[in-house]
Design goal:
Elements (H helix, E strand, L loop, with lengths): L7 E7 L7 H14 L3 E7 L3 H5 L3 E3 L5 H6 L22 H13 L2 E8 L1 H16 L5 E6 L15 H22 L6 E6 L6 H5 L13 E3 L7 H15 L2 E6 L12 E5 L5 E3 L2 H13 L3 E5 L1 H6 L6 H19 L5 E10 L2 E9 L24 H7 L11 E2 L2 E2 L19
Parallel strand pairs: 1-2, 1-4, 4-5, 6-8, 6-11, 7-8
Antiparallel strand pairs: 2-3, 9-10, 12-13, 14-15
Helix pairs in contact: 1-11, 4-5, 8-9
């Protein structure tokens, strides 16, 4: 950063599916930016990037310091998020030009976009267009995805807490099933998130140790589903243990790539809408073996469960938000802070960064050596990777038996431009 550089404002937005710790990243961005002599105000987009396009900005300086600090223990997206994908520059240049117009009108020189693969692509494009239009904006992506599939970072903020929730829930549900299996339910299926990468399903493997302990079967997107092999394994588990616990990723697919639960529709990002693989798998078992079963879908519960968040995850989420601002005020543009693992035992990590061009629209899947040879579980190497990420507790404050979460006032910034339809 050049000396005597003009003070410019910052814009922060949350994107895509939220998590238990995305607000911790928001806290890291806002607290660090407000301490910087290079940044004036910090504006947040109401409902993500849509807030920028419609000039619906929230003035975070109108929030109390206690509220901003409280974001660190508050789940979901405090400023609102959106599944809204900006198309390519050639397809819809008007949207990107509108962003620059809004940034120019409000003296915004820093853009912090808190999201996953698609969001990193948007931040990259905004950095490129701003320069070409003569209004350079320093764009830094803030990593966030419960799917843990961003490349060039050891893990993604949001994943550790989902992993902890899934591992704990699998262990507890397994005890429930085991206690009733002799005369009641013999098969329990838990469906978890993970469209193309099985990191969350793999985390369920932390509930037990080895193929004899639950979950007995993990169905991963990286392993083509073989129905007869699966059904044989279920029967063997019930024969050997009296019951079978199955964890299935929503993205489990047949060998030809078709999702087991393809609902035939697409979401706002153009991704296949999945229709619930848990009951699909449970019905296969019922039809083949007639076992009494129960199934559950973790769905929003897994990514909203701040009450059982991983302390490591919270710390990393805040750290990447803080680092994003520190990089930006140093003049580092079009990058994403990354988490760099220095050692696993003891667990040590630091912050690095990677170019957005190497992150945007790329996915990191489970490595083959993280998957057991039978395809139904995780290896010791995978366990060594996962265990540190769920370590520690970071409980929110409680009152009358319930967690107390921060709520922003959301004071709007006065508009200066005309309407823009999205």
């Amino acid at each position: 950063m050049k000396k005597n550089a003009p003070v410019r404002n910052a814009f922060y937005a949350q994107s895509g599916g939220v998590s238990a710790v995305i607000n911790a990243s928001a806290c890291g961005v806002i607290e660090t930016a407000l301490r910087s002599k290079h940044i004036g105000k910090v504006y947040a987009g109401r409902d993500g990037i849509v807030g920028a396009l419609t000039e619906d900005l929230i003035d975070t300086t109108r929030e109390s310091a206690a509220t901003i600090r409280g974001l660190k223990h508050t789940p979901a997206g405090a400023f609102g998020s959106a599944r809204f994908k900006l198309k390519g520059l050639e397809q819809n240049r008007a949207e990107y030009e509108r962003l620059i117009e809004v940034f120019r009108a409000h003296n915004i020189g820093y853009f912090f976009y808190n999201g996953g693969n698609d969001s990193m692509d948007t931040a990259l494009k905004v950095s490129q267009l701003g320069a070409s239009l003569g209004y350079p904006v320093t764009c830094v992506g803030v990593p966030k995805t419960v799917d843990n599939d961003l490349p060039h970072t050891d893990c993604c903020p949001g994943f550790g807490s989902v992993a902890k929730y899934v591992a704990v829930s699998t262990r507890e549900a397994s005890l429930d099933v085991a206690s009733m299996a002799r005369t009641s339910t013999k098969v329990f299926v838990l469906e978890v998130m993970g469209r193309h990468a099985g990191w969350i399903a793999a985390a369920a493997g932390l509930a037990g140790r080895g193929p004899e302990e639950t979950p007995h079967i993990i169905l991963l997107p990286e392993v083509p589903f073989e129905q007869q092999k699966f059904l044989d394994r279920v029967r063997q588990c019930v024969t050997d243990h009296g019951y079978c616990v199955i964890v299935v990723s929503e993205g489990a697919a047949w060998a030809d790539g078709r999702f087991l639960a393809d609902a035939g529709t697409r979401d706002a990002f153009g991704h296949t809408q999945l229709g619930g693989v848990g009951p699909v798998v449970a019905n296969m078992v019922r039809e083949a073996h007639g076992y009494k079963y129960h199934w559950a879908v973790a769905d929003y519960l897994q990514r909203a469960a701040r009450h059982i968040a991983s302390r490591v995850d919270v710390e990393q989420a805040y750290a990447v938000g803080k680092a994003a601002v520190e990089l930006a005020v140093r003049g580092v543009n079009a990058v994403m802070p990354t988490i760099v693992r220095k050692s696993s035992k003891p667990y040590r990590w630091t912050i690095g960064h990677a170019p957005l061009s190497e992150v945007a629209n790329k996915e990191k899947k489970l490595p083959p050596d993280f998957i057991r040879t039978d395809g139904f579980g995780i290896t010791a190497k995978c366990r060594r990777y996962l265990e540190p990420l769920i370590a520690g507790e970071s409980y929110p404050p409680y009152r009358n038996g319930l967690p107390q979460y921060a709520r922003i006032r959301g004071v709007r910034v006065r508009r200066k431009l005309g309407d823009f339809k999205v």
